[in-house]
């Protein structure tokens, strides 16, 4: 069996359980199109195509008024990113994290996968700092018993935890930013985000 790999070691053939695949950007419509077949296109609210210092969101990710990813038993978040400058503080890459949910983010020097399990924050953090202006493939997974963070195809850290993912009812699904309160969007990512994927299972 031969597995073909794209940039940063991502298997191209993995589609089972794929919920979202943002990888087709239109500057004309300021929209990042979902090519998973589920139709979860996301519209940019700040006209910065590289997502630098801006963010895009979709307040109806599930095709309804639901604002969260609403995957409670298992999830995988993937992101292909290029880092900006280090030491910029807490910056969000992708997720719906506020009083629930999950996200990929950086504290300014280390990548993190953060997830809320039954009302408790679980943070899985890289063991070393990232390098500025460098490409990374990030994956955060939860399978109902363990949360894991992978960087460039390597398992970096994991935390044993059980329970359900708490849905984030207050926040929208965001790319390139996060919530400091229920109504304030901030923590803008200062690098570039090239692709986002969500699966309803742990890869």
List the helices and strands and how they pair.
Blueprint: E1 18-26, E2 31-34, E3 42-44, E4 56-58, E5 75-82, E6 91-95, E7 102-106, E8 111-117, E9 120-125, E10 135-142, E11 146-151, E12 154-160, E13 173-175, E14 178-179, E15 185-186, E16 192-199
Antiparallel strand pairs: 1-2, 1-16, 2-3, 3-4, 4-13, 5-10, 5-16, 6-7, 6-13, 7-8, 8-9, 10-11, 11-12, 14-15
What does this structure look like?
By secondary structure, this protein is mostly beta strands. It has strands at residues 18-26, 31-34, 42-44, 56-58, 75-82, 91-95, 102-106, 111-117, 120-125, 135-142, 146-151, 154-160, 173-175, 178-179, 185-186, 192-199. The strands form two sheets. A 14-stranded antiparallel sheet has the order 9-8-7-6-13-4-3-2-1-16-5-10-11-12, with no helix packed on it.
Précis, in short:
The protein is mostly beta strands and 203 residues long.
Which structural class best describes the helix and strand composition? mainly beta
Q: Name the helicity range.
A: under 10%
Count of helices? Answer: 0
Count of individual beta strands: 16
Strand content: 35-45%
Shape category: globular
Mean pLDDT: 79
Distance between the termini: 18 Å
Q: What is the H-and-E element order?
A: EEEEEEEEEEEEEEEE
- Largest sheet descriptor: 14 strands, antiparallel
In angstroms, what is the radius of gyration? 15 Å
- The strands making up the biggest β-sheet line up spatially as 9-8-7-6-13-4-3-2-1-16-5-10-11-12
Identify low-pLDDT runs.
1-13, 47-54, 59-67
Features:
single chain; 203 residues; mainly beta; 14-stranded antiparallel β-sheet; 16 strands; 0% helix; 42% strand
